[in-house]
Design goal:
The chain is α/β, with parallel strands linked by helices and 360 residues long. 28% of the residues lie in helices and 27% in strands. The structure holds adenosine-5-diphosphoribose and zinc ion (2 copies).
Length: 360
């Protein structure tokens, strides 16, 4: 089976044949229909967070079940699914308290060995998935069955970008009708935040990104105002667009300390800044505790859009099916598995919103 494997920090992924182990009793084998290439794949490849050589990358996928283990219930061969990059076990403390995005089984599932590479060494899979492959074997808690006519290339985006971005607006921030919103970083995830804010009824959605293509796409997807951070201080530009007050909600969707600080500084008194981007493991930021106290600001972390995947995945698929959520404008290119390294280059060059692998 062909897969794109991480072998060395900063180097290209290696396209190779791997030999998956037979599925365990709670495992499901999924034939992938599509896999999006997300910035987190690039960040792992570049050592933002340490991972083992011999990891199949990819965490944003949709496909069809090919085989189920003997103890799997509620799923069968032929079911269409979306992969959840955080498992939702359904029985840990967090799953039982409506916070499946913080599920306790995450690390245990992520570390599992899944089979052998051609040289005989074991491989594991990013977030317990590994969607840059013809097929993946994963725990049943990592997949959600979906009933939809939406094609896999669109559906795959629900696995990360849509759930993270739309969820940041709807679940984490709970943007209210008429709210003012700024989104710093308008890649695949940022465009989904913009759409979440639009769906929530925000009156003003300010897209902040240095790349013109990103600002143009943001306009198509519901942004009302545009800020080029290279044209002047983005905090001041956002304040000017909101009567000097600052926005009700800001979202950092890159993963950098300096833009996190900008997000905090551009909210109004009583506003909320949401940190969506994944930073380097060792990154930190210094902010004014006086500003936090005196202006009663909130800075919130946001993991996986605070998504409850067994509730939200079908909801997002329905929003796409009925045209309320536009994923087609987010898929810039459909590519082959062999082109994944080229997709990373295009991402870094700002040429694409998302590249999606549809041929494996
Ligand atoms: N100010 C504003 N925008 C910026 C800046 C900046 N200083 N620097 C970069 N950007 C923009 C880029 O131009 C790009 O459009 O941020 C965007 C990042 O988009 P992608 O690379 O497509 O990343 P995406 O897949 O959307 O992921 C964003 O969310 O899931 C996490 O790990 C992921 O941290 C990453 C973030
Ligand atoms: Zn992702
Ligand atoms: Zn759980």
């Amino acid at each position: 089976m062909r897969a794109a494997v991480f072998t060395e920090t900063g180097g290209p992924l290696s396209i190779e044949n791997i030999d998956p182990a037979p599925p365990g009793p709670r495992d499901v084998v999924v034939e992938l229909g599509a896999s999006g290439v997300c910035h987190s794949d690039l960040s792992l490849k570049n050592g933002y967070v340490g991972i083992m050589p011999g990891t199949v990358l990819g965490h944003e996928g949709a496909g069809t079940i090919a085989e189920v283990g003997k103890d799997v219930s509620g799923l069968k061969k032929g079911d269409r699914i979306i992969a959840s990059f955080i498992p939702a076990c359904g029985i840990c403390w967090f799953c039982l308290h409506d916070q499946s995005h913080l599920c306790d089984t995450e690390f245990e599932i992520m570390m599992k060995q899944r089979g052998k590479r051609a040289d005989g060494s074991e491989y594991s899979a990013m977030t317990g998935l590994g969607t840059f492959a013809e097929a993946m074997t994963c725990d049943q808690s990592s997949i959600v069955k979906i009933d939809t006519s939406v094609t896999d290339d669109q559906l795959a985006l629900i696995g990360c970008g849509v759930t993270t971005g739309v969820g940041a607006a709807l679940n984490t921030a709970q943007v209210h009708p008429g709210a003012t919103v700024a989104v710093i970083g308008c890649g695949g995830v940022g465009q989904a935040v913009i759409q979440g804010a639009r769906i929530a009824g925000a009156s003003r959605i300010i897209a902040v990104d240095p790349v013109e293509l990103k600002r143009k796409t943001a306009e198509q997807l519901g942004a009302t105002d545009f800020v080029d951070p290279n044209a002047g201080d983005p905090v001041q530009q956002v304040q000017q667009l909101t009567s000097g007050r600052g926005v009700d909600y800001s979202f950092e969707v890159i993963g950098l300390p300096e833009t996190t600080l900008q997000a905090f500084n551009m909210i109004r008194k009583g506003g909320t800044a949401v940190m969506v981007g994944m930073t380097r493991a060792e990154a930190s930021v210094t902010l004014s505790t006086f500003d936090l106290f005196f202006n009663e600001k909130t800075l919130k972390g946001c993991k996986y859009g605070s998504g409850q995947v067994r509730r939200d995945f079908q909801r997002y698929a329905d929003l796409i099916e009925t045209g309320r959520l536009d994923t087609s404008a987010m898929v810039s290119r459909t590519i082959k598995l062999d082109e994944v390294n080229e997709a990373f280059r295009a991402m870094e060059a700002g040429e694409v919103i998302r590249s999606v692998i549809t041929t494996f």
